[in-house]
Design a protein that fits this description.
single chain; 300 residues; mainly beta; Methylamine Dehydrogenase, Chain H; 2 domains; four-stranded antiparallel sheet; 24 strands; 50% strand; disordered C terminus
Length: 300
Amino acid sequence: MQWRGNSTPQMLLPDLNWKTVTGGAPSSNSHSCAITDNNDLYCWGKNRYGEVGTGESNSYYSNPVMIAANVNKVDVNRTQTCAIINNGYLYCWGESYGNEPQQIGTSNNWNEISILNTHKCGIKNNGNLYCWGGNSHGELGVGDTINKSEPTKVGDFTDWNKISVGRNDFSCGIRDNGKLYCWGRNNYGQLGLEDIGPDALVTTPQQVGTFTDWDEVYIDGSTTYAIRDGKLYSWGQIKMGKFNLYEIKTEPQRIGTATNWNKTSSYCGIRDHKLNCWSNASGIPLGLQTYYPNTPQKVE
């Protein structure tokens, strides 16, 4: 049996040192971007709408292409890319933006960005959180379900430091005090709240549990992943193995026993500077030689 594509991780541009990478939807219809240690942005992959940022569309780049210098943060979705450039200016490109980076507003104090085709959220240097885009389930966190075309401030907190948005119409963020909040749709318990169902939603940030030491949060589909005190947790629609089975959990569930997790994403995380991946129910390659492990496995 073979994975679609490469079964093990492939090294790209080995002469460069990378500090962060983000990928779009896990299929051939996607693209990825990464930032080097000297803050150069490279992107590659599917470029139907200009999401790679080369000024072209309806093309494909198998190797990373340098897009911009002095890039601080980047995030992508299936057809768009947004990046914080020159210490605070926010630019987006791809579907609905065009083939080349377009500046979003005039602010020059953006610090964090997380994007989907439907909605986006960002944090400014002063700790204020802003969201905009679709809002059918309250995923913008501004107290209503009305779409917003411009960045709109979320609540009164001024100490946000992490943000992640999910394609199932919800968002989660972490404040400087280590408290984790989620808002939006809660049909699978992804907000960490017990009130679940097709119509369950909240339109303002709600604290997840009582812990005050959350460090990282990442949303994928209807699942939330987060790290506290080096321990990795997930909740919501948790997939179990290769048969598309899943469980619904409304409270954080510990993944494995390791206490040295640093970063997390969809079915993969970094601990002790090593990449580890676990069960994936959709057949997407994890960079492992074995299929569908249910506990974290090191990617060699």
